[in-house]
Amino acid sequence: MLFDILDTIPGKKRQTTGGWYSFNALCCEHRGHRPDKKSRGGLIITGEDTWSYHCFNCQFKCGSNPGKQFTGNTKKFLEWCGMDRMQVERLSFKNFSNKDLYDVEEEFRPIIIMFDNKRLPDGSVLLEADNLEHQLHNDYLRGRGLTADSYTFYITPDSESERERNRIIIPYYYNGKIVGYTSRFYTETGPKYLSEQQRGYIFNIDAQQDNWQTCILVEGQFDAISIGGCAYMSSTISDEQARLVKKLRRDIIVVPDRDSAGMSICDRALDLGYRVSIPEWGSGVKDVNDAVKRYGRLATTLSILEAATTSKITIEMKRKKF
User: Fold this and answer.
1) Is the whole-model pTM more than 0.90?
2) Please, what is the end-to-end C-alpha distance for the chain in angstroms?
3) Which domains, from first to last, does the chain contain?
4) CB 3.0-4.6 Å disulfide test: which of 23, 61, 136, 150 passes with 146?
């Protein structure tokens, strides 16, 4: 047996004739409701390591099935019960590792996502850190706390267009193939960014390692490169993007940009079962890239992990500042 869910839930529990255990729901106050005092939380055990929880007040649901990793809601529930994050992750992995003992055909049905291969702009060459002719582009990266080695950046230095000479190209990779790109222009005229982006793509997903337990999801490409995370590159996370993120099978933490437009992602992130992190960074830090420049990558990562939460009240209080 993985663990005793009844022993994990604090407080008094009463078993009904239908087999349900009722108790004061733990989820309500974490989801912006009043604390439950009427035993409206219900849990039923249908097999070894198989259980379902339902709150008859705020309608929160979760559960556990052998051979499958815990869902975002299940992880939240166990944390609300008093488990620490690392313990929950270990139990989730252990539950998944027992897959050979159960019929888990659905778990292993592959999520097949395809993107068309794309070509970079004509004349694209790899940005080189020690090439004096690439100094303009390397200076731009240094201004963002990055180098030519931070990612496989490209440039078009021999283009006939001055605007195209003054840009850096960020390729999009999926399964090792280029499936799009963003051009970041330095000129004052015209848009700063132009992208060739396919529906449902998540930037930097190829860089995520199999042994990582967490993925930090941000808005912009430079933010993702700075922290080793992924970027949704929009004002929201589409259903197709959420499907691609699901393939990672790990804890997802969304770090919004620190303005009203960026903070609009919070509700969508919670609906998808992700955690949201709004660290207490100083004034002038607008996004993850700014934080890495000021505090360094390690300190920024730790601050993101420490501030990650699913509490709507906590998130709402923090985002009101922006």
Assistant:
1) no
2) 46
3) 5-101 (no CATH), 125-196 (3.90.980.10), 205-319 (3.40.1360.10)
4) 150
